[in-house]
Design brief:
The protein has three helices and eleven strands. By secondary structure, the chain is of the alpha+beta class. It has one domain: Beta Polymerase, domain 2.
Length: 238
């Protein structure tokens, strides 16, 4: 990480001592974990106070940390039949994640804000844990950045996260009758219902899913004579 971002990190850590925690980044990006109670105050300061000027909200997304670090695919090596699937957990630590509250309650959902300062050409990421319980909830930043409108509706639709103070929080991508939130880790890959047009009724109908759940192992099938053993060392022509 360059010196300018390190100086910015020190300034933010000093200005909001006790309210933010620096999160380790593998890609050289500056990330802080923000306490939910101080989210709006910190965001307002990052936008308005001189020296920061994060006037743009580039993106906002939800994250589901259920089973984080317990299940993953091993795609580091390929075989003649394709990729293998990692069936044994790697037990890697959840670096930078404090997934428990002070009472020991497990936290699952978080909201990530991606900020941009055009004036200083700097980017900053803020992660805030949602309040424990169902549904998960966090304050809306729409009064600070109007661009949060559709971003927060998307996170509500896909993760079921409620944004306190949003004036029009409703589904954005799924249908009105959709059941569940498709980006949650426990949402079935085959979905809950099927949708089709019924000519007899003259309308669209919802029905239980008819396909069986299954786990697919990604494979790479190459139908090419370059991979034939007999032709591997054959002399080239032309």
């Amino acid at each position: 990480m360059n010196q300018a971002l390190e100086q910015l990190a020190e300034t933010i850590s000093g200005r909001f001592a006790g309210q933010v925690t620096r999160v380790e980044s593998r890609c050289g990006e500056l990330t802080f974990e923000v306490a939910p109670t101080g989210l709006l105050t910190i965001c307002q300061a990052l936008r308005d106070e001189a020296g920061w000027n994060f006037e743009q909200l580039i993106d906002l997304c939800g994250v589901d940390y259920a089973a984080y670090g317990q299940d993953e695919w091993n795609t580091d090596t390929a075989t003649s039949s394709g990729f293998s699937r990692g069936r044994q957990p790697l037990n890697r630590p959840a670096a930078g994640l404090s997934q428990q509250t002070g009472d020991g309650e497990q936290r699952r959902f978080a909201v990530v804000h991606h900020l941009l300062s055009v004036k200083h050409n700097r980017r900053l990421r803020l992660r805030t844990w949602c309040e424990p319980g169902e549904p998960p909830m966090v304050d809306s930043v729409i009064e600070i950045w109007k661009a949060a409108d559709w971003f927060e509706r998307e996170a509500f639709d896909l993760f079921g996260i409620l944004f306190r103070g949003h004036p029009d929080l409703r589904r954005l991508l799924t249908d009105y009758g959709f059941i569940g939130h498709p980006f949650r880790k426990d949402f079935p890959l085959i979905g809950n219902v099927e949708v089709r047009y019924d000519p007899a009724r003259g309308r669209v109908v919802y029905e239980p899913v008819s396909i069986e759940p299954r786990t697919l192992v990604p494979r790479v099938i190459r139908e090419d004579n370059r991979y034939e053993a007999a032709l591997k060392d054959a002399p080239k022509h032309g």
